[in-house]
Amino acid sequence: MLSRRRPASAPATPAPARPPRDPRQLRRVLAYARPYRGLLVFGLLATLISSGLNLIFPLLFGRLIDASFLRVGATDTGPLDRTVLALLGIFALSSLFGAAQSYLLAKVGAGVVADLRRSLFSHLMTLSPRFFAEHRTGELTSRLTADVGTVQAVTSTALAQAAALTFNIVGSTTLLVVTSPRLSLLTLAVIPLVIGTAIVIGRRIRTVSREVQDRVAEANASAEEAISGVRVVQSFTAEDTERGRYGQGVLASFLASLRRARLQALMGGVMSFLTFASLALVLWYGGRLVMGGDLSPGGLVTFLIYALQVGATVAAMSGLFSQFQEALGASGRIFELLDERSDLPEPARPLPLARAEGRVSFERVSFSYGDAPVLHDLSFDVPAGQVVALVGPSGAGKTTLVSLIPRFWDVTGGTLRVDGEDVRAYALADLRAQVGLVPQETLLFSGSIEENIRYGRPDASPEEVEAAARAANAHGFITALPQGYATVVGERGVRLSGGQRQRVAIARALLKDPRILILDEATSALDNESEALVQQALETLMRGRTTFVIAHRLSTVRNADRILVMEGGRTVQDGPHAELMAAGGLYRDLYELQFRKEQEERAELVPGMGG
């Protein structure tokens, strides 16, 4: 499509440097949870209740031990029975609130991710073609899928875990101290070492996680290019090249994933050792206290369970810290896109443009892509309804020139006017509603033929869709298809021929009913029969509209009201066909060269001709 085409001779511009990662990015992610704050509050409340109930369990278990072992020979089992019933009740309530927490927060996470994806995609649609010329499609889709999926955990399970773990560690630590102050000092001495290890290794995990996400995005971009261009790949038997390129991307992401796995394994191993070593010390010292009569067996069991909870909580916090680091890297990449601003600013007070006349004026217009000049000091006026052909050698700037009319790019010098007003004075949507485009490589979407025709006017009636198709010489082949207008065209319209795709695109433009029409090599890739049908449809489409036609076949533009001959980003000739032929110069040279070439092609097709 024209909107995705980089101007002729434009060099690639390196992507801007990424801003430093900022933990405040996670706050921006959590801001997307505001519409679900009721569910979030109830989910967190269920989490805290479940965690609180789990803190009661060690106390009851300790009582159960004392009721069993310190009352050997007793016949009254009431205390034991009541303790077991209390334990069963605690387990049931904890499971109930745990299930509620899981469902509520999963719903919040799914909603946040859906909103974030919609917001990101909607924002991408506002960015200019310059942005898409500098970013690969696979990289952008990776942001929408993998990165947003990574962030999902923060707004669902990770958030609940953070609340639960904070509550657990505070509650368990308090109950540890209450149960045995001396044992608590031994246990808590290990915690700063565990937390310090988590922070040091966690920082490295965050860096490597970002690298993993980058490598996955690059591999996705490579795959997307190969899949979308599979015909070219296969025609050049370049399957091995693409396999190698994608394989290198996958290998890079695999190696980065291994580095992350090693760091995570290191963190897990260190945490596990510190946790169980501390428990061994607690058992040793607690056993001495029991033997000395300073602690009951049930009290030691209670303390051990609380110590296990503290150790498990600290270990879980280290894993959670790692998860937050990954989410921080992913959110940074997401918000880089959300913070991207279009280089096509909307006017503060746009002028109304309900129905344009179609007059287009170039006043000393120049355009450069980066440091590469493409157009130089162009000045000409096109009255409403005039058909203007743009011809010239490749790289002359023809496509770039017509790209300026719907503001796919902004002029870097001079002024481009529509109906006497600078195009930058109109809202982009209003301006582009007046411009229709039929490019050489027609892009159809993967829905039905009817959906593709009504793309520019979703509210069009079936009768209006059919009328547009008839005017585009498309109704005949559409009704001959088994499913007619409901026929699914496949990705990029692959199930239709080139001529059929072009006629559907022309019907789409007819239904839009633009005042300004751009035909960019609309028939150059077609055979003679298809070209004749498409040319008839184009003539219908051009009636009463200001039309800019780009064509390499000069025989197709002889009837234009005016021909602009371009070379090196400048107009070197201007006039109708007969006048330019009489004047000589570049146009006549191009025309005669092409005429001779067409004669030679006919001679090859018809034996004996030209001999």
From TrEMBL:
<keyword id="KW-0067">ATP-binding</keyword>
<dbReference type="InterPro" id="IPR017871">
    <property type="entry name" value="ABC_transporter-like_CS"/>
</dbReference>
<feature type="transmembrane region" description="Helical">
    <location>
        <begin position="39"/>
        <end position="62"/>
    </location>
</feature>
<dbReference type="InterPro" id="IPR036640">
    <property type="entry name" value="ABC1_TM_sf"/>
</dbReference>
<keyword id="KW-0472">Membrane</keyword>
<feature type="domain" description="ABC transporter">
    <location>
        <begin position="360"/>
        <end position="593"/>
    </location>
</feature>
<keyword id="KW-0813">Transport</keyword>
<keyword id="KW-1003">Cell membrane</keyword>
<feature type="transmembrane region" description="Helical">
    <location>
        <begin position="265"/>
        <end position="286"/>
    </location>
</feature>
<feature type="region of interest" description="Disordered">
    <location>
        <begin position="1"/>
        <end position="22"/>
    </location>
</feature>
<dbReference type="InterPro" id="IPR039421">
    <property type="entry name" value="Type_1_exporter"/>
</dbReference>
<dbReference type="Pfam" id="PF00005">
    <property type="entry name" value="ABC_tran"/>
</dbReference>
<dbReference type="GO" id="GO:0090374">
    <property type="term" value="P:oligopeptide export from mitochondrion"/>
</dbReference>
<keyword id="KW-0812">Transmembrane</keyword>
<dbReference type="Pfam" id="PF00664">
    <property type="entry name" value="ABC_membrane"/>
</dbReference>
<feature type="transmembrane region" description="Helical">
    <location>
        <begin position="298"/>
        <end position="321"/>
    </location>
</feature>
<dbReference type="GO" id="GO:0005886">
    <property type="term" value="C:plasma membrane"/>
</dbReference>
<feature type="domain" description="ABC transmembrane type-1">
    <location>
        <begin position="41"/>
        <end position="326"/>
    </location>
</feature>
<dbReference type="GO" id="GO:0015421">
    <property type="term" value="F:ABC-type oligopeptide transporter activity"/>
</dbReference>
<dbReference type="GO" id="GO:0016887">
    <property type="term" value="F:ATP hydrolysis activity"/>
</dbReference>
<keyword id="KW-1133">Transmembrane helix</keyword>
<dbReference type="InterPro" id="IPR003439">
    <property type="entry name" value="ABC_transporter-like_ATP-bd"/>
</dbReference>
<keyword id="KW-0547">Nucleotide-binding</keyword>
<protein>
    <submittedName>
        <fullName>ATP-binding cassette domain-containing protein</fullName>
    </submittedName>
</protein>
<dbReference type="InterPro" id="IPR003593">
    <property type="entry name" value="AAA+_ATPase"/>
</dbReference>
<dbReference type="GO" id="GO:0005524">
    <property type="term" value="F:ATP binding"/>
</dbReference>
<dbReference type="InterPro" id="IPR027417">
    <property type="entry name" value="P-loop_NTPase"/>
</dbReference>
<dbReference type="InterPro" id="IPR011527">
    <property type="entry name" value="ABC1_TM_dom"/>
</dbReference>
<feature type="transmembrane region" description="Helical">
    <location>
        <begin position="83"/>
        <end position="106"/>
    </location>
</feature>
<feature type="transmembrane region" description="Helical">
    <location>
        <begin position="183"/>
        <end position="201"/>
    </location>
</feature>
